[in-house]
Amino acid sequence: MSDVLKNKLQQKLAERAAQGNLRELKTTAGLIDFCSNDYLGLARSERLRALIQKEEENYRHLPLGATGSRLLSGNHGLFEELEGIIASYHKGEAALLFNSGYTANVGLLSALPQRGDTVFYDEASHASMKDGLRLSFAKTYSFRHNNVEDLRQKLKHATGQVYVVVESVYSMDGDKAPLVELAQLCAEHKAALIVDEAHAVGLYGSKGEGLTVALGLEKQVFAQVITYGKAMGSHGAAVVGLQVLRDFLINYSRAFIYTTGLPTHALVALKCAYTLLPELAQERERVQQLATRLYQKLNKLSGIRCTPENSVILSVFPQQPRQLKALAAALQQQGFDVRPVLPPTVPAGTERLRVIVHAYNSEEEIDGLVQAIAKGT
């Protein structure tokens, strides 16, 4: 029986390899980073490292690990303190920590919509949002990416409590959701708007609060999902919203109830990251300037299309998509950490190089990458 199963697994891997889409883990130490989500450089910040080490001394009385789920032995004062900081920072009544952005989306979207409710989600939404909705008993429908009119038409046929689920900045395409229009439409239909701020936190808002707060929509957004493995340079996530939402998730979110809480070090790291985040206005401005420089230079190349404008996440489309893996390999050989994004992560026909700009990149690195892409295409 084990040999039969082994052969089945090998066959599935062979099928993906034949399609040119086999995933493999790799390390790329020493390359110039145009791949990671460390937009502001906090994950490599010596200032943040020193602050964490100093702050940890204040919590030596706490265990290294949570020791259990927060409903059993795993809760302590630092959780409550940090959730208060998070709620205030993102202008919500309350916040609840989860162990990752994936877990937060699954935990929220599997628990909140009930049988008889209707959920509409942008077709480009993250896999974690779609997976959470698969576990829900509500009816779920996608709408065309960033197409408010398509959503408007579909809302006419909704039943029960209605939810609209979007990302503020989309992880693959890098474009922004039309949050103002979406919030207005949701208000007209008494729908609850849920916004994943994973790729906006740190970059938007006067203190990096995210796009919801930057646009002054915190009262119109029912729940914000704030994740910490990207611009915050740490780990974990939080759902920010009403106090009653927090209480509901504590009672009904299986992804929260049945997991061990975050370790003390992760909580201290998050507290320190929130301390530094308001001071990174210069980094926020610099990363946007560098991204504009790269966008403009790439779109001057023959045979290259780069989208979107005004984003630190850029998609680079060569005329020959079959060259993507070879192009990425060539760029890595020249010292640039750039990865191809292939199906099933993105739909067939939308394969691209995903290039991410950081505050610690230099103008010379931007120009060098452009030259390498021009040479490779």
Structure description:
By secondary structure, the protein is α/β, with parallel strands linked by helices. The protein contains 14 helices and 13 strands. The longest helix is centred in the C-terminal third of the chain and has 18 residues, at 281-298. It starts with a helix and ends with a helix.
Topology:
Layout: H1 2-18, E1 32-33, H2 46-56, H3 77-89, E2 94-98, H4 101-111, E3 118-122, H5 127-134, E4 139-143, H6 148-155, E5 162-167, H7 179-188, E6 192-196, H8 211-214, E7 223-227, E8 237-241, H9 243-252, H10 254-257, H11 264-276, H12 281-298, E9 304-307, E10 313-318, H13 324-333, E11 336-337, E12 339-341, E13 352-356, H14 363-376
Parallel strand pairs: 1-11, 3-4, 3-5, 5-6, 6-7
Antiparallel strand pairs: 2-8, 7-8, 9-10, 10-13, 12-13
